[in-house]
Amino acid sequence: MACPNPFNGSFPRVSHVTVPKGYPRVAHPQNLSTGAFPTATFSQNFLAVPNKPGVPKPVSWSPPQAPSSDVIGEMREAVKSTDWWQLYLDKKTKFRVAADWSADSSRCGLLQTLCAVSGARRVLEIGQCCGVATLAMAEVLPEGGQVCSVEIDPFLADFAKQFWARSPHGGKIHSFIGTAMEYLKGNAPHDGPFDLVVIDADKDGIWEYYCKLKQGLLAPKAIVVVDTTPHKGQPPDRYVRFGAEHKWESNSGQEAIEAALKHFQTEDSVSMASFGGVTVLYPKPAA
Ligand SMILES: C[S@@+](CC[C@H](N)C(=O)[O-])C[C@H]1O[C@@H](n2cnc3c(N)ncnc32)[C@H](O)[C@@H]1O
């Protein structure tokens, strides 16, 4: 039977893996670390080998879970307990931030794993929000590694900094406050080229940011992770910005996401894999 190429098209979006009868269950899933990266563990036993002939191996995907460091744990608590709507009404934030914009354990685990397996030293995060994913990635970069994060909202940038300052890895983070395009045109040529880039800001900008990155800002084997979750990180619609804050409205960004994905498919030199709310672009292996 032909073996399906897991990177050809989309993975099913599953959060739970149903293990067919006959597969051994693993009592301690935390022992399933790949060894490539000791702090990434896999919550499901998708590495299990069938013990009955003829039982097909399940085709599924389960995100690595990042065990949170103390500081990341504190950040998560702070993100959860903050009244983001009130901060927006008080004009402290530019956006009506939602706590679930901030990277959860699966997202952090995925980004940490990609950083580790790609050997990334220079990482760029476009759309930092509360800085949880930023610190998670910094934690796995080697000495001398650097995460450059870009955030349009000064309140969020400051929110993150108070926590980063308490982490031994905070010194690896360089934060830029301003728009993604300002950064890409200004500081990025000096900070890059980047081994791994996370595009996780406004959805309308996805394709534009990617095009700009391709102009010499990506290392030869760079991985680009694009957040494709509708509604996340969207700015308010124009009229709301001018005076009617209580009427927060933003579009889902779905059209821009779909347009960007179509563009990515025309890129000859990259392969794509979509799962867990992201699309990962990585260099096609040489034929
Ligand atoms: C979904 S959140 C980022 C989440 C973060 N990457 C994480 O994993 O925790 C999107 C962020 O992008 C920021 N943003 C939106 N448009 C932007 C732009 N044009 N330039 C820079 N940041 C932007 C928003 O303020 C928001 O904090």
TrEMBL record:
Keyword annotations: Methyltransferase, S-adenosyl-L-methionine, Transferase
Keyword Transferase applies: yes
CDD domains in the record: AdoMet_MTases
The family this protein is said to belong to: Belongs to the class I-like SAM-binding methyltransferase superfamily. Cation-dependent O-methyltransferase family.
PANTHER family on file: CAFFEOYL-COA O-METHYLTRANSFERASE 3-RELATED (PTHR10509:SF14), O-METHYLTRANSFERASE-RELATED (PTHR10509)
Protein name per UniProt: O-methyltransferase
